[in-house]
From TrEMBL:
Subunit structure: Homotetramer; dimer of dimers.
NCBIfam families in alphabetical order: dapA (TIGR00674)
Function summary: Catalyzes the condensation of (S)-aspartate-beta-semialdehyde [(S)-ASA] and pyruvate to 4-hydroxy-tetrahydrodipicolinate (HTPA).
Keywords: Amino-acid biosynthesis, Cytoplasm, Diaminopimelate biosynthesis, Lyase, Lysine biosynthesis, Schiff base
Record-level Gene Ontology MF annotations: 4-hydroxy-tetrahydrodipicolinate synthase activity
Binding site for pyruvate: T49, I208
Name of protein: 4-hydroxy-tetrahydrodipicolinate synthase
Active site: Y137 (proton donor/acceptor), K166 (schiff-base intermediate with substrate)
Coiled coil regions, renumbered to chain: none
SUPFAM superfamilies listed in its UniProt record: Aldolase
Species assigned in the record: Prevotella illustrans
Location in or out of the cell: Cytoplasm
Length: 295
């Protein structure tokens, strides 16, 4: 029976661009190394935070190769593969070279709003095709549909290669229900930085984080402290970031964390349309918080 291999701090990797709007592979390589040496346990590539809908197939392939080369086997890599077209996902899984990749992150179908049975059948088709472990991704704010705990648990019990869910419903009650009833080989992973402290306290195995792009050392320390049962020092770190959590997303993701990384001198503050950079006011406020925290 497959076990979840994606635990601790996972970073939802951004895609840096040059001022001309091209993928900045040099900055990407620097980011990957920065996150690994500062405590990231695994990398999640080519998902929402990576602005993947606005990347070409060639860019996605080159980003994958860049991440694999820089990582050089140091941490696990979870790669996104999802769509609202089940057949397209199955075909992509079959036609992709998965060497150097440790798992697949796949989102609930968006826009067409399937029933719970439709969600089950979608992920059943993926599970029966995938050569790698699968992490489900439930994010109703983006997809328009919430996968209920009963469906998640049904999938976890029926398919040994479905090993975890990135749960971003925003409902701690839903998280608790999954954790309470899940099989032993299945884990919940936080998909929301602001709820990570509470979710790990409830039994989640880690997070796929946005803030981890910029502050992996601090965020991974919070998680490690919680795993050791040292909740008070972990809570202090969590509270350090309370205001930053909301500022990172107020103008859309990854606009906030890209502004933060730009202030750190690591990337250009460039996104691809329809996304635009965060406002100057938000950028300045985040910079002030980081300065006050002396990070």
């Amino acid at each position: 029976m497959a076990q979840n291999i994606f635990k601790g701090l996972g970073v939802a990797l951004i895609t840096p661009f040059t001022v001309e709007g091209e993928v900045d592979y040099k900055a990407l390589a620097g980011l990957v190394d920065y996150q690994i040496v500062n405590g990231a346990n695994f990398l999640c590539i080519l998902a929402t935070t990576g602005e993947t809908p606005c990347l070409t197939r060639e860019e996605k392939d080159k980003i994958t190769e860049t991440v694999k080369q820089v990582n050089n086997g140091r941490v696990r890599i979870l790669k996104y593969c999802g769509s609202n077209n089940t057949a397209a996902v199955v075909d992509e899984i079959r036609s992709t070279d998965w060497s150097g990749i440790d798992g697949i992150l796949s989102i609930c179908p968006y826009y067409n709003k399937p029933s719970q049975e439709g969600l089950y059948q979608h992920f059943k088709a993926i599970a029966e095709t995938s050569p790698l472990p699968i992490v489900l991704y439930n994010v109703p704010g983006r997809t328009g549909i919430n996968m209920k705990p009963s469906t998640t648990i049904r999938l976890a019990r029926d398919f040994n290669n479905i090993i975890a869910i990135k749960e971003a419903s925003g409902s701690l009650e839903q998280v608790d229900e999954i954790i309470k009833n899940k099989p032993d080989n299945f884990d919940v992973i936080s998909g929301d930085d602001a709820l990570t402290f509470s979710m790990i306290a409830s039994g989640a195995a880690g997070v796929i984080s946005v803030i981890g792009n910029a502050l992996p050392k601090e965020f991974s320390r919070m998680i490690r402290l919680e795993f050791k049962g040292e909740y008070e020092p972990a809570r202090k770190i969590h509270h350090m970031f309370t205001e930053l959590y909301s500022l990172l997303f107020v103008d859309g993701n990854p606009a906030g964390v890209k502004a933060l990384l730009n202030d750190m001198g690591m990337i250009e503050n460039v996104l691809r349309l329809p996304l635009v950079p965060t406002t100057i006011k938000t950028k300045q406020k985040m910079a002030e918080i980081i300065k006050d925290l002396r990070i």
